[in-house]
Design a protein that fits this description.
- This protein is of the alpha+beta class.
- The protein has helices at 3-8, 50-53, 169-176, 179-183, 248-254, 340-352, 373-388, 392-401, 422-428, 431-438, and strands at residues 12-17, 24-25, 32-45, 68-70, 78-88, 92-100, 125-127, 135-137, 147-157, 163-166, 206-208, 212-217, 224-225, 270-274, 280-288, 305-314, 323-325, 361-369, 404-409, 413-421.
- The strands form four sheets. Strands 1, 3, 4, 5, 12, 14, 15, 16, 17, 18, 19 and 20 form a twelve-stranded mixed sheet that branches. A four-stranded antiparallel sheet has the order 6-9-10-11, with no helix packed on it.
- It is globular.
- The two termini are 40 Å apart.
- InterPro entries: FmdA_AmdA.
- Pfam families: FmdA_AmdA.
- This is Acetamidase.
């Protein structure tokens, strides 16, 4: 819907979302809403990564929700997203390391799939049987999947949502026969269920569940494949041979870094996203059942799920990228709020050395992205320095002694976490939000 029309519509308090994009976040295309500042989004998310990766008509590597227009949000503002709940609905999934299949894509297998048989770009597909040759071109019946597993597994989840276990060949093939049923793929999702491949290299492995969102953010200001809305995956767009090619300057200008794969973006956390288009365009998806820092395998357990978000607009924040306020238990030891005992000790030291006033500080995490972890770290440091109008060396010192640099996704997503002085937060317009998270 036209953004001018959306801006004039009566905003709603709660919006149910169960429709998905074709893999491309396009500010010129339909948004849902509007919802009120302070409103709620209830979304049924489709699995990310592997399912869309073997579905060539999806042009972005993921299948995220249609963006939502937030009343009053304008470019230069920020949107505070409180993650109220994240619930897995899938009973099973498959995942593992990927290997692109040469001759089946144009430059980027996540985006521009080309049938090796008839040459059709973004071909429709059908499923024939199970295994890694089951995804066929609907036009010529060629094996068209652009990715296969190098080492993969099929996982089934317990009813309590506490653990999953990896399955044998026989069990994986049983699940593959009813892929959409076991994955609980939403009805409006078009992706092929990845359990169709029935991978079974790991058998009997137990993994703890702690679901989070790999994709949560706002719409970039130029058409961008959803999985490439970040500085690392986005670098593949620079000089690419397909229609979504970008320059480095365009990537820096338009991206919003909604694809983070940071495991701390879970229920109870708060994410503050930049606004680069009218209404912000909040979208989400790529829920994972569990993941350690780094997502070092390239992929983890993609699942369908139900998410509840609460959103608020912060006028004129001008944050260049996402700012994360994790749950207290997810903070680095050095960045946790101080206990009363620690404050008393600090006051005694201050008195001994005639320090008139100690800083009042609170935790904050700046997301940085780039082609490498070093680039992502520099990006995050600069974003923090710019928002607080201080130098990068100061942020480096604060992150070293009152925080940490943590990997969200290898090769190029990090969080720069540190204790920020309250007067920095107040000047930026974030003090009340951060205090509410850590009170």
């Amino acid at each position: 819907m036209n953004k001018k029309i959306l801006a004039k519509k009566t905003a709603v308090e709660t919006l149910l979302v169960n429709r998905y994009i074709d893999g491309v976040l396009d500010p010129g295309k339909e948004m849902l809403g509007p919802i009120k500042d302070g409103g709620h989004i209830i979304a049924h998310t489709a699995p990310g990564c592997w399912g869309p990766m073997i579905t060539p008509c999806i042009r972005g590597g993921h299948e995220v929700t249609l963006p939502v227009y937030v009343e009053g949000a304008e470019p230069g503002d920020g949107i505070v997203i409180k993650i109220k709940s994240v619930e897995v609905t899938s009973h099973a999934t498959s995942s593992g390391n990927d290997s692109p299949v040469e001759g089946r894509f144009l430059g980027d297998p996540f985006i521009a799939v080309k049938c090796p048989g008839c040459g059709t770009m973004y071909p429709d597909t059908i499923i024939r049987g199970v295994g890694q040759e089951a995804i066929r071109c609907a036009k010529c019946d060629a094996d068209v999947t652009p990715f296969v597993f190098t080492n993969g597994y099929t996982m089934f989840f317990g009813e309590k949502g506490d653990v999953g276990i990896t399955l044998s060949k026989e069990a994986a093939e049983t699940i593959a026969e009813n892929g959409r049923g076991y994955m609980k793929t939403p009805e409006n999702s078009v992706q092929n269920p990845i359990v169709t491949f029935a991978p079974h290299d790991l058998v009997g492995t137990i993994a703890r569940m702690r679901p989070f969102l790999g994709q949560l953010g706002t719409t970039p200001s130029r058409p961008t494949p959803d999985s490439h809305n970040a500085g690392d995956f986005g670098s593949f767009l620079v000089g690419a041979p397909h229609e979504y090619a970008s320059t480095q300057e365009e990537l820096e200008t338009h991206r919003t870094d909604g694809h983070m794969d940071i495991s701390r973006v879970r229920a109870g956390a708060v994410l503050i996203c930049p606004v680069k288009v009218p209404g912000g365009g909040i979208y989400l998806g790529d829920m994972h059942a569990m993941q350690g820092d780094g997502e070092i395998a390239g992929h983890t357990s993609d699942v369908a799920g139900i998410v509840h978000l609460e959103v608020h607009v912060v006028k004129g924040l001008n944050n260049a990228g996402p700012i994360l306020l994790p749950n207290v238990e997810d903070l680095p030891y050095t960045a946790k709020p101080f206990t009363e005992q620690e404050r008393q000790t600090a006051q005694q030291l201050a008195k001994k050395w005639n320090i008139d006033k100690l800083e009042e500080s609170l935790p904050v995490s700046f997301v940085g992205t780039g082609p490498t972890l070093n680039d992502a770290t520099e990006n995050g440091l600069q974003r923090a320095a710019d928002l607080f109008n201080v130098t990068v060396p100061e942020i480096m010192n604060r992150a070293t002694i009152t925080g940490s640099i943590e990997i969200g996704r290898h090769p190029g997503v990090v969080t720069i976490t540190f204790l920020a002085p309250e007067h920095y937060l107040e000047k930026a317009g974030l003090l009340n939000t951060v205090k509410a998270q850590y009170s």
